[in-house]
DNA sequence: CCGGGTGGTTTCCGTTGGTAACTCACGCTA
DNA sequence: TAGCGTGAGTTACCAACGGAAACCACCCGG
């Protein structure tokens, strides 16, 4: 964006700032996983599945900085760290959980839409290759002839 | 995640898949900007502000593939491309808009939480530097002596 | 021929995310 | 005494994603 690119700053930029804070790849998952009470680090990691320690640590730090979770260290051996939603986090959980549940409820519709799109546009190649391939090849009803590899 | 790292795949992985699809940095902004009707490419770009053409194009393609928006090309001179939410997109808009409005309504609370955190932990350094610095130094009520740069 | 406006792609580079190994501090086992 | 396992976290390295800017194709006005 150029400096002279004057746009009307509706309600968009502030939203974008906060969205960038909660827009980490795993933030929604972490917050929704925390909704049933405090959780230990490895518990979270195990429950989410597919997240690395590095990113889980970083995302939790970020959530802590933004006031969404608290981090409680019990100095035992081995050390024990519990993460829990704050009031702010619990409030954020409400809309985030709605998104999460929408995603769960409409997963198949998205998958079907993807399939329909690629059947109508066989030459289309998804710009975000990795994740897209995962989605297509995963729990799809019949992912044979997934047109993503053909190009 | 290792292959032998068996976890119970609750409702977490499917959600994560869809979330990765809609979890692009700008996806929420784009969908919520589209809620009042179809929009042209540059209109979207101007309205959102801060997004590059490349990413806007890629994100819109992704949304199109997932069945959230339609892309209508009018072969006029200069060419005109309109993007509009599908039914699926309008349904997704509901929870996404809730997130967006939460972010707008609670922006200052997040900012305050950040400030309080950094006042209590002056040594803390945010792992995601760029965005965090932007957030702190931006429309904050009094961002003088923002402790992030001092380290 | 030059510049403007539109939608989009390409190039380069910084940031983010993933993988694997290592650390710390202890108790258990041999 | 040495080695192993634990739990939270860090580090090094590397691929993918996101951002800035340039370029492309198209046609019109001057």
UniProtKB/TrEMBL annotation, chains A, B:
Annotated ranges, domain HTH hxlR-type: 12-111
Protein name: HxlR family transcriptional regulator
Record-linked SUPFAM superfamilies: Winged helix' DNA-binding domain
Entry keywords, A to Z: DNA-binding, Transcription, Transcription regulation
InterPro entries reported for this sequence: ArsR-like_HTH, HTH_HxlR, WH-like_DNA-bd_sf, WH_DNA-bd_sf
Keyword Transcription regulation assigned: yes
Pfam family, one: HxlR
PROSITE patterns tied to this protein: HTH_HXLR
């Amino acid at each position: 964006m150029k400096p002279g690119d004057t746009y009307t700053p509706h309600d968009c930029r502030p939203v974008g700032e906060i969205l960038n804070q909660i827009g980490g790849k795993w933030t929604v998952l972490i917050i929704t996983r925390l909704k049933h009470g405090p959780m230990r680090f490895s518990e979270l990691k195990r429950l989410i599945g597919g997240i690395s320690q590095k990113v889980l640590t970083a995302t939790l730090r970020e959530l802590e900085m933004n006031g969404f979770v608290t981090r409680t260290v019990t100095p035992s051996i081995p050390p024990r760290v519990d993460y829990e939603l704050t009031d702010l986090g619990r409030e954020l959980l409400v809309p985030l959980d709605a998104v999460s549940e929408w995603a769960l409820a409409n997963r198949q519709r998205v998958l079907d839409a993807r399939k329909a799109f690629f059947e109508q546009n066989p030459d289309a190649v998804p710009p975000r290759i990795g994740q897209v391939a995962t989605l297509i090849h995963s729990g799809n009803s019949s992912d044979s002839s997934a047109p993503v590899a053909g190009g």
